[in-house]
Amino acid sequence: MREHSGFIFFGVYERCLQLLQAAAPHSLSQLLIAGASRGGGEESPRRRPEAARAETAGGGGGGGGGEAPEARLALLAGGLAGTATDVILYPIDTVKTRLISGRPLLGSSSLWSGIGVSVMPAIPAAATFFTVYEATKHRTARLTGADPSDTLPSAIAAALAESFSCVVRVPFEQLKMRMQVRY
After folding, report:
1. Which of 46, 74, 127, 159 has its CA 20 to 30 A from that of 20?
2. Residues 97/112/158/138 CA torsion (nearest 10 deg)
3. Listed residue (102, 98, 122, 103) closest to 177, CA to CA
């Protein structure tokens, strides 16, 4: 189902990224940044609010030009987007799988059979996708002299990111389809 949900996936990712970048200093993203900086022996962002806000603001998001978002924000926003997209589209995917397999549609509760197996890999797969996508898109743009929102950097980044994401997602996809058909 992921191949047909790209617009939803990217839209949810962009919105999650915007919300995380605009979040208050005590938000989950700030706690992640603070935890990482404390581990390196640096001064805590809670003692330096202006530095913490600058780190959290990161860049212009994933859609346009500007700098790449903070890697932790891309990771978190990607995980949230993958989970939301899979949960929203799961019943449609179940109907499609059952129609293809010739199995009957047994009721609304059976439409959610196997959702745990679907959502479990969605978080790391989507987080992997967007972390690789953002880094590759901006690196490719710098190397080619193009804007990060141009087609070439985006296409190269999406192809590479999907390759990395599939390593996590594909084994679970087979298990998910078996669970959808079984009930």
Report:
1. 159
2. 180
3. 98
Rounded CA gap, 84 and 87, in Å?
A: 5
Other CB atoms within a 10 A radius of the CB of residue 115 amount to: 18
Residue 14 CA to residue 134 CA, distance in Å, equals 12
Report pTM: 0.63
Instruction: Give the Cα separation of 51 and 18 in Å (integer).
Output: 18
> What is the amino acid identity at position 172?
F
d(CA 63, CA 161): 15
Report helix, strand and coil shares of the chain as percent, to nearest 5.
75, 0, 25
pLDDT in tens, 119-153: 888 888 888 999 999 999 999 999 999 998 889 99
